[in-house]
Amino acid sequence: MKILHVASEMFPLLKTGGLADVVGALPFAQQQIGDEARILLPAYPAMLAAMPSTALVCDFDSFAGKASLRYADYHGVGIYLLEAAHLFDREGNPYHDADYQDYSDNYLRFALLAYTAAEIAEGLDTWWRPEVVHAHDWHSGLTPAYLYAKGSQVRTIFTIHNIAYQGLFASQHLPEIALPEYMMSVEGIEFHDQLSYLKAGIYYANQVTTVSPTYAREIITEENGFGLQGLLQSKAEQGQLSGVLNGVDESIWNPLTDSYLKNHYKIGNMQGKAKNKAALQKQFNLTVDKHVLLTVMVSRLTEQKGVDLLIDSIATIIKNNGQLIVLGSGNPVFEKALLQLAEKYPAYIGVCIGYDEALSHLLVAGGDVIAVPSRFEPCGLTQLYGLKYGTLPLVHRTGGLADTVEDSTETAIKVRSATGFVFDSADSDALSRAMCNMFSLWKNPGKWHSVRANAMRTNFSWQLAAEQYQVLYR
Ligand code: ADP
């Protein structure tokens, strides 16, 4: 089957979060099971730099001015780059400027992306047409709307990677993005008098998916639906809403071959992990001691990610003589609080504010535990990386975290299904209690190693996800 993915990020070309990891892995897995996947991306400077020799497919005019479609093969997957320098030739973050201000023309930039996807579906590239268009997150949410407006027969899937980001814009922009006026309605793309690009994707797509089965159930509730629960509920009733778990890209995330690591390891030969841990302790000026439990966190520092819960539980780590290293950036309040903790407890806590791909691999490889205390989590990838690397996830029972980590209860340890530590409510007391379980398991190396081996044997593969999407496409 011919599939066109539409997205705004793709690892390793440009990444701000998990979406990029998905787009950088799923199409390749689809090729391997016999589908033909291509990807449409905006031609950000990073994309053009990574693909210097592209072929011009065509130039075209649009509501957003002149644009070009370029094409290149990237490791076996076809990539279309949407070139419109006035919209996409901006360095750095693809959504906001250096002061964290959203670009004021985002409504136009991502309308053009979606419009171009619809045009490709309808023959903009005379050599190739998709049978299914698979749009990801609000950035490409208008794609099903443009296809609907055109009366296209091409089927669409829209995947929600995070419902909290909705792409809301003033309704007065509607005429500028060439969508018919009738769509500005509750039965359409309107959301509380604004345009919602996310809602457009949900409303007009033939199938809506999200990135874990539990999150698919959570978003139809008032608590987690961000106002879209009614629409999602009706999609679910029509059999048009489901969850497909993300996988781990083993060509990037594998402790035996990881190109970011000096010390590799596998089950049965774990010295490499111990060396990575020592390297981390040294790098962050913590006491170098293999007996100290090292917890790591690699995350955007936002309220969603529960970083404040971790900050509020720090006493439990200190009391148990544990260590913590956090890599992340985001809300300045959390950044400051973490830096203050590192200053106060330099032997216990290390903090790196920023984005660092190589360090993220070393943390996942060198930690004993990876904390993912998210208030909500559509899928979550770092806990999956943690499992693969024998770095036991410490997670809140929500979304994809609930689907992928099994708490180390006595029974689960006995039947060898335990893979981490799970707490039930998003508060620091519950997190602290889970930490106490973690420290008590740490005191029993035999049990710890058994749980660690269970974790490393889990298999969240992209092949499985590709097969599930194939069924949905059909
Ligand atoms: P989200 O997409 O909500 O940010 P995910 O867990 O799905 O969360 O994906 C996050 C991805 O971004 C992971 O690959 C993680 O390793 C990476 N990441 C997050 N923060 C950083 C950082 N500061 N430096 C390097 N990688 C990071």
Strand order of the largest sheet: 3-4-5-2-1-6-7-11-12
Number of helices: 20
Question: Which range best describes the helical content: under 10%, 10-25%, 25-40%, 40-55%, 55-70% or over 70%?
Answer: 25-40%
**What is the typical, i.e. mean, pLDDT?**
97
User: What is the straight-line distance between the termini?
Assistant: 9 Å
Q: Which class best fits the helix and strand makeup?
A: alpha/beta
> What does the overall shape look like?
globular
Q: Quaternary status of these chains?
A: single chain
Q: Ions, cofactors, ligands: which are bound?
A: adenosine-5'-diphosphate
Number of strands: 18
Strand content: 15-25%
* Major sheet description: 9 strands, mixed
CA radius of gyration: 23 Å
Unreliable segments (pLDDT under 50, ≥5 consecutive)? none
Task: Note down, in words, how this protein is organized.
- The chain has 474 residues and is α/β, with parallel strands linked by helices.
- The chain has helices spanning 18-23, 26-32, 45-50, 85-88, 106-121, 143-149, 197-204, 213-218, 229-237, 271-283, 307-312, 314-319, 332-344, 357-366, 382-388, 399-404, 410-414, 428-442, 445-457, 462-473, and strands spanning 2-6, 36-42, 55-62, 65-74, 77-83, 132-136, 155-160, 168-170, 190-191, 194-196, 207-210, 241-243, 294-301, 323-330, 349-353, 369-372, 392-396, 421-423.
- The strands form 3 sheets. The chain has a 9-stranded mixed sheet with strand order 3-4-5-2-1-6-7-11-12, sandwiched between helices. A 6-stranded parallel sheet has the order 15-14-13-16-17-18, sandwiched between helices.
- The longest helix has 16 residues, at 106-121.
- Adenosine-5'-diphosphate binds next to helix 1, strand 13, strand 14 and helix 14.
- The site of adenosine-5'-diphosphate (ADP) has 19 residues, from helix 1, strand 13, strand 14 and helix 14.
